Amino acid sequence: MHKFSGLFFRVFAFLVFGAASLAAQSTPKSLAEKLGYARDAKLVIVHADDLGMTHSVNAASIKGLESGLVNSASIMAPCPWFPEMADYAKTHPDADLGLHLTLTSERVFYRWGPVAPKDKVPSLVDSNGYFQLSWTEPPHIDAKEVELELRAQIERAMAMGVRPTHLDSHQYRLFQNGAEMFQSALRVAHDYKLPVFVVRDWFADHPYLETSLSAGDLVVDHTITIDPGVRPEKWADFYRSALKNLQPGVTVFIIHLAFDDEEMRSATRERDTWGAAWRQRDFDFFTSAEFRALLREQNIHLVTWRELAHAPK
Amino acid sequence: MHKFSGLFFRVFAFLVFGAASLAAQSTPKSLAEKLGYARDAKLVIVHADDLGMTHSVNAASIKGLESGLVNSASIMAPCPWFPEMADYAKTHPDADLGLHLTLTSERVFYRWGPVAPKDKVPSLVDSNGYFQLSWTEPPHIDAKEVELELRAQIERAMAMGVRPTHLDSHQYRLFQNGAEMFQSALRVAHDYKLPVFVVRDWFADHPYLETSLSAGDLVVDHTITIDPGVRPEKWADFYRSALKNLQPGVTVFIIHLAFDDEEMRSATRERDTWGAAWRQRDFDFFTSAEFRALLREQNIHLVTWRELAHAPK
Q1: What HEC string does A159-222 produce?
Q2: Virtual CA dihedral for B115, B121, B125, B129, nearest 10 degrees?
């Protein structure tokens, strides 16, 4: 009986621990676990986009960063107000600032163009030498020119004192336009050893994202950004609900900060989406006491791109 | 006696009318006379510079133009807010708008670069691809690159609906840096059949201006612009005195309008000269009831570049 029970125990132990060990092998550590959190922890990057676009965006984003509630952001090197943000990045080396790689100039009365010489990136510019206002479908964009321009943007940023913690893409252009363009971005990211914003939830719509990635590439779990269909008076409701229903894992909130001032209203006056009032609403929510309380109440931890990049592989 | 007096009269008449006719031959019509005014008329162009630089400059300059007291202005095609002014020019074809040809980007936190591909104008750009902040002396600027860039600026402006009435030069760069650069500008002006801002009073310091001009080129008589040494509280005094002591002929007042707002203060924060408060002071004086009264009181007539260009040669 003892012998049998001894054998039984060994068999039982083999079954239990062996299975657990197999499970551990087949389920690699999540990003949360690599960062030292529980597997079901709710981790958030509160990420402001479009820094460098206007002074209003810069001023509001800096104020957001300095509130501690907005904890990451990315900067547009081709934009007129980039030097102001480069100066901020240089004097605030701990700030979690990446580059918002930019291939379009989507406003009508205020515009910018490529960092690379325009005759080297003809598919990216319109007849007046600005980045195109929008891309027709399918976009006649040369991925080689994209890569040249991305490198020019990173080189300008680094020469002006920015040490980017990550790369992402203005208007998601690099992620939504086929394997070739995404692979250009990825090649650049690998060369500069920078993580690039890719979300697991995008794989279903764009399978080439997953198949293009290497083992060492970071992938965040979820992203949340407000929809143009949300009515202004429902703004806080949208974010409140998103925070209360957050899934485990790393979620990037993509937000757009600016003040609803004369400069921003004029720069965006041809349409309200991502306009001055929109950005003021984002600023108001993400610097509010309510947002701070929700983070605490929902047991949400803020993490940065820098932490993600330094997590064990 | 009669005979003698008859002879005397003929001799007298010959002396008087002949001399007058010789005088008329040796003193060509002044610009004022060509415009139909008396030779000693006091004619003024109230000219706002730097349109397109920021939204604040645009908004204040448009308000100045619409007051009727600022009656001419020029636009910077390389600047981020150029599209806003191009749109205004297109929808206000009677406005006297020229091009403020630009070869520098003189601010620190807000910058712009050439319209031509940067690899075609290497002497004009710094290592980050912006126009140079300032030019060292002697400037190592290639006049062929200058000409290429000037043509690119005019082509962009015309493609975007501007029909310039004249050309001038941001920070006077084209007039103060030698014959070769001035002749580049003049060649471009001739090709586009546009008058270029040249002042007779500059000939003493820069003789190549006079020797480079052709018979058909317009030359205005005087120009007045406020000096950085004038204290803010003496601003109106300076202009008051200038208007009360105006010389006969065509005088161009070069003024710089903007509002002393957040955008303009940030764009110019590294130094006060031509800064936000400076430009607000210019705006306040040149849209004031006092300025309007001074024009009337001093019998000063406003003329435009368009009128000058259409005056009989």
Answers
A1: HCCCCCCCEEEHHHHHHHCCHHHHHHHHHHHHHCCCCECCEHHHCCCCHHHHHHCCCCCCCECE
A2: 60
Average pLDDT over residues A291-301: 98
Q: Does A83 reach chain B within 8 Å, measured CB to CB?
A: yes
Calculate how close chain A gets to B251, using CA atoms only, in Å. 33
Strands (E), chain B: 42-51, 72-75, 97-101, 167-169, 222-224, 249-255, 300-302
Contact A111 B261 (CB under 8 A): no
Cβ–Cβ gap A83/B56 under 8 Å: no
Question: Which of A53, A108, A115, A266 would best serve as a mutation to test chain B binding (most B beta carbons within 10 A)?
Answer: A266
Q: Which of B55, B57, B105 to mutate to test the interface with A (most CBs of A within 10 A)?
A: B55
Q: CB A80 to CB B261 under 8 A? A: no
Residues from chain A that touch B118, judged by Cβ atoms under 8 A, are: 117-118
| CA nearest to B267 within chain A | A55
- CA B145, CA B284: separation in Å to the nearest integer? 38
Cβ pair B266:A112 closer than 8 A: no
Residue ranges of the alpha helices (H) in chain A?
2-26, 31-34, 55-67, 82-91, 143-159, 173-176, 179-191, 207-212, 235-244, 262-267, 276-286, 289-297, 305-310
CA-nearest residue of chain B to A111? B80
- Does pLDDT of A137 surpass 90? no
**In angstroms, how far is CA B147 from the centroid of its own chain?**
19
Contact in structure between A167 and A178 (CB atoms under 8 Å): no
pLDDT (tens digit per residue) in B268-310: 999 999 999 999 999 999 999 999 999 999 999 999 999 999 9
Which tokens sit at A111? 């515009």
B128 touches chain A (CB under 8 A): yes
**Amino acid in the structure at residue A281:** R
Nearest CA in chain B to A266: B55
Distance CA B123, CA B114 (A): 11
Give the pLDDT score at B295.
98
Strands B222-224, A300-302: pairing is unpaired
